[in-house]
Amino acid sequence: MEDGLLVLKRDIDIRSIAALIERTARWVDPETFRLLPVWFPEFARRGALYNANWSIRRQNTNRQSGDVTDKIEGNTQANKALCEAMGITLKERPHWTCCHIWGVDDPTFVKANSVVQDHRFFSCIANMVLLPTPLKAFTDVMPEVKAMLRRCSGDLFGWSCDHPDLLPQAGDAFDPADYPESWRHAASGSVPGIVPVNDKIRAKARNRMAAISRDLENAGEFYPRAKVRDALSYWNITL
Prior knowledge:
Blueprint: H1 4-11, H2 14-24, E1 27-28, H3 30-35, E2 59-61, E3 68-70, H4 76-86, E4 96-100, E5 128-132, H5 136-141, H6 143-157, E6 194-195, H7 199-218, H8 225-234
Parallel strand pairs: 1-6
Antiparallel strand pairs: 2-3, 4-5
């Protein structure tokens, strides 16, 4: 059977797909990013999960077999970071999906995604965009769409991911004529769909920084202090 992407591209062009994302994407405010670039540096994709004070490994028990398996982080804390940075809850965003912008590009989903397994980038709010759930597939498998989102985010937040496992882009990986018009001005700090910073979001950022500081001092033995400090140092965050 013919490649599904080729079939899709015959029916809808890249410019139309990009325009659809341009009109519907939701971004955090660049000022929010400057307040706190990474919200949960203690977590990363596929990392071990522990109880609230990081002293006991969390596990699942299969009710039928009785087999016990360790719990690992999926995308929960990245979702939470994006919600808090937008001043909303998960219940207030039905049918929206948190999409990472930078990651290891593998449409077959076979390679380990070392970018989001890095504590510096997993909950980085410049590395995420909120999209209507059906549009997530475009960001997963279409290199042109990924490249456009990375260009827009890089201009909007003044930062591009420098993880060593990211492959260099071949040119821009998209036709410049397909790039959304409003995104061409992202470096000015304005694109459609920005959720403006407010006092509620500022308070959440302050509370999150205070929680990180407390955990560095008081959390249990499994709290990843070295990785948290490395992430804070990377982002020049002073608690």
